[in-house]
Amino acid sequence: MPDIGQQHRVIGIRHVLRRLKKAGLVEKDSLYAQEAISNIQDKVLARAVSWYKIGARRGALVILEPREIIAKVDSVRWRKKLRVKVGSSSRTVKKSTYRLSSQELDFE
């Protein structure tokens, strides 16, 4: 027979999972704490990639703004893997190709 502490721990975990589901942070069919953690970490990683792209565009505009550049390319491409701190652990987004088009950089 489980002791009262274990029963309260299970009830607490279920309560937290229910709140995370209602907030849209965890998939509705998640039943275990580890699934919930994985769902949240995946969302944080996806958000980090979005912010990396925004930062890359902003950085390129700051660096290139005062210069006149003549180029015969339609876009700038590079490959990079991202290391992201998610909670107490570090996760890595696999190496991907990122691209900024000349239109995004406001080139004519």
What keyword list fits this structure?
alpha+beta; 2 helices; two-stranded antiparallel sheet; 108 residues; 2 strands
Overview of the structural elements:
By secondary structure, this protein is of the alpha+beta class. 47% of the residues lie in helices and 23% in strands. The chain is built from 2 helices and 2 strands, in the order ααββ. It has a two-stranded antiparallel ribbon. β1 and β2 form a beta hairpin. The protein is rod-shaped and about 75 Å long. The model has no long low-confidence stretch (mean pLDDT 81).
Given helix and strand content, the structural type is alpha+beta
Counting DSSP E segments of at least 2 residues, the number of strands comes to 2
Shape descriptor: rod-shaped
Report the average pLDDT across residues: 81
Computed over alpha carbons, the radius of gyration is: 22 Å
What low-confidence regions span 5 or more consecutive residues with pLDDT below 50? none
Q: Work out the oligomeric state of the chains in this entry.
A: single chain
Strand order of the largest sheet: 1-2
- Tell me the strand percentage band: 15-25%
